[in-house]
Amino acid sequence: MTARVAPPPRTLLTQLGWAVADSWTIVRRHLLHIRYMPDKLLDVTIQPIMFVILFAYVFGSAISVPGGNYRSFLMPGIYAQNMMFASMPIMAALVQDMQRGVIDRFRSLPMSRAAVLVGHAGASFIESMLGLVIMLACGLFVGWRPELGLPSTLGAVGLLMLFAFAMISVGTFLGLIVKSVEAAQSIGFIVMFPLTFVANTFVPTAGMPAWLRVVADWNPVSAVTEAVRHLFGNLPAGSKMGPTWPLAHPVLTTLVFAGALIAVFMPLAVWRFRRLLFE
After folding, report:
1. Nearest 5 degrees, angle CA 62-CA 67-CA 72?
2. In the structure, what pLDDT confidence band is assigned to residue 8 with cuts at 50, 70 and 90?
3. What's the whole-model pTM score?
4. Residue ranges per domain, the chain?
């Protein structure tokens, strides 16, 4: 008679280790897809480069920034816009996985349930950071320079990374709600584009009509852009803190805004994912 050996107890540390390993497997899955479908990176590589060329060389000649250089003014706005769009790839990826039955397949496997969301978010974050590196290189190429030294520059990059993760949190939740890739893309164009253009990302808000300037000054994207300009040292000479509270305290506003998005949308994404698992 063969004695049965009891399985080892599953401790919290063991469960955490398996969750990390499963999450990394999901991340590797997405990165391997890029190897065979490099067009997945178009929205974080080619598209931002096109914006740089369009605004720096085409529109830039017609836009003046009092007390400053337009390209130095422009690049922090491009960085903020690029991080704003970090929500779009994860929306499309989650919708595709649900349509193709990949989520159902994951549900049948002995894997951590949290790994699906963590893996998707991790892969999107890596893609966004790749886009940020490319954008920083483009900025250096067109003449942009950080002016306040390494600590402040690292602070600006860290703020952009936090903003990107906040937008990924939003995209994770929306990707579990929308029913098609087309709907996910529509959300990006209908919501994301107005938020990035009705702001101080590409032009100073001083020349806008009074009512539109109020909207732009209170737009959180303006606070992110202003914070990055401040930390990079790209504020025009003689410029003062903005007339509204978000622009007068842009770094604090960005931290609060990003933290609120993560605190709200990550739990909502987990709740929605659990509902999908048991539907």
Report:
1. 65
2. very low
3. 0.86
4. 38-277
